[in-house]
Amino acid sequence: MNLRRHLLEAATLVFLAILCALVANALASRERKLALVGSYPDALKVPGAEATAPAPLVAPVAAGSEAKNSSSSPADLLRRFPPHNKPYVEISGDDVAWLVAHGALVLDARRTNDYVAGHIAGARAFPVWESDIDARVTALVGEGRDGAMPVVLYCSGGDCEDSHMLAQKLYGAGFNNLLVYRDGWPDWVKRKGKSATGPET
Amino acid sequence: MTPKEALASPWLTVRVQIALGLLFVAAALPKLVDPPSFAHMIYNYRLVPGALVNLMALVMPWLELLAGLALILGIWTRASAGIVGALLLVFLAAISLNLARGNAIDCGCFDVASANRTVDERLSDMRLDVLRDLGMALMVAQILRTKGRGPAPSPA
Fold first, then answer.
1. C-alpha to C-alpha distance for A34 and A38, rounded to whole angstroms
2. Which region among A40-54, A152-166, A175-189, B36-50 has the lowest average model confidence (pLDDT)?
3. B50 and A31: CB-CB below 8 Å?
4. In sequence order, what are the residues at sequence separation of 6 or more whose Cβ sits closer than 8 angstroms to the Cβ of residue B150?
5. Which of A31, A178, B2, B56 is the S-S candidate for A112 at Cβ 3.0 to 4.6 Å?
6. Residue A184 with chain B: CB contacts under 8 Å
7. What is the mean pLDDT of chain A?
8. pLDDT tens-digit series, residues B10-49
9. Rounded to an integer, what distance in angstroms lies between the CA atom of residue B6 and that of residue B149?
10. What is the CA radius of gyration of chain B?
11. Residue A163's domain spans which residues?
């Protein structure tokens, strides 16, 4: 029976494809590798269905205490951005500029090659689509940071949601003051914020 | 030769096979080079459970490549045309479903770079993608109807 032979051939092709995929992934460089089992909690949630991202946080700006680059202390950061205990809150470029100037932790969720090409000065690479993201999150948790301190996350703005995805990973790991830079890297470039190039040091 | 005979001619089948094979090889290459970007594309379809997204992003391009090469070389033609047909049905279903629910996404068919396009541009591209996949499905039908019935044709 011919059908049986064709099915066998098709099954062989599928098997070969799986074999090639596993070997290629094992040999791939860090930026090209994928964890075999993905962890994307929102993989079946259609965006726009309940398109209401948490309302942008309007930071209470204490007038007067905003002297440029006043010696920043954790208390300053917490006063303006207290922990909100949501997976994330979206913030504007102005807020990000203030947070960066006051030494908040900034994480770049874009791909490694985007990070190398240019990132917010002081930002750390957390490429959410690359295979070692969970190891990076674990390492960050291992640094024993205070989960109440603000953490800025960004990707390329627009409909990019990599930073939201990263926020969910960190929220699950005990960070509860995650601030997503809504307009992301293009906005930072436009406002000529301080940036750097090259791999993470 | 009637039009019906012309459509079923082995001469045409060989051309269709090679063209379809080349299309699938061309579609596979960018995905093979950058699996994380393709995983992102699959994720955007919001149809695949999170745990399976990466596995699909790794295996599907290889399946496209191997089936495409087999079509070009004329090896296991019926089986590889069947695989290509099955893949096309999956693509058609995935794009149509997202069109129906208004989820504007990048196709991720022939390239995996997420272009900065508007929702309307994406939706109209998705409609074209459906038409293109239907065209390729017709190519598969041509191959399956004429090829592999009975013993392989011996080189005369």
1. 8
2. A40-54
3. no
4. A2
5. A31
6. none
7. 85
8. 899 999 999 999 999 999 999 999 999 999 999 999 999 9
9. 17
10. 17
11. 74-196
CATH number at residue A161: 3.40.250.10
Indicate whether A28 and A94 sit together in one domain: no
- A24 lies in the same domain as A92: no
Residues in chain A within 8 Å Cβ distance of B80: 9-10, 13
In this prediction, residue A68 carries a pLDDT of 47
For B97-140, the DSSP string reads HHHHTT------SS--------HHHHHHHHHHHHHHHHHHHHHH
Taking residues A173-185, what's their average pLDDT?
Answer: 92
Asked whether the beta carbons of residue B58 and residue A25 sit closer than 8 angstroms, the reply is: yes
Closest in B53, B59, B148 to A17, CB measured:
B59
Q: Are A34 and B66 in contact (CB < 8 Å)? A: no
Which residues are within 8 A (CB) of A53 and not within 5 positions of it... i.e. 6 or more apart?
A90, A164
Q: How far is A117 from chain B (nearest CA, A)?
A: 16
CA distance B86 to chain A (A): 11
pLDDT at A55: 52
- A60 part of a folded domain: no
Report how many domains make up chain A: 2
ipTM (interface predicted TM)? 0.90
Domain extents for chain B? Answer: 3-146
Distance separating alpha carbons of residues B110 and B136, to the nearest angstrom: 14
Partner-chain contact B49 A44, CB within 8 Å: yes
pLDDT score, position A72: 62
- Its pTM stands at 0.83
pLDDT in tens, B52-89: 999 999 999 999 999 999 999 999 999 999 999 999 99
Of the candidates B39, B51, B63, the beta carbon closest to that of A34 is on B39
How far separated are the first and last CA of chain B, in Å rounded? 21
Residue A83 in domain: yes
Residues belonging to chain B with any Cβ–Cβ distance to chain A shorter than 8 Å: 32-37, 39-40, 43, 46-55, 57-63, 65-67, 70, 76, 78-80, 82-83, 101-103, 116, 148, 150
pLDDT by residue (tens digit) across A55-79?
555 554 444 444 444 456 788 888 8
Strands A124-125, A105-108: parallel, antiparallel or unpaired by DSSP? parallel
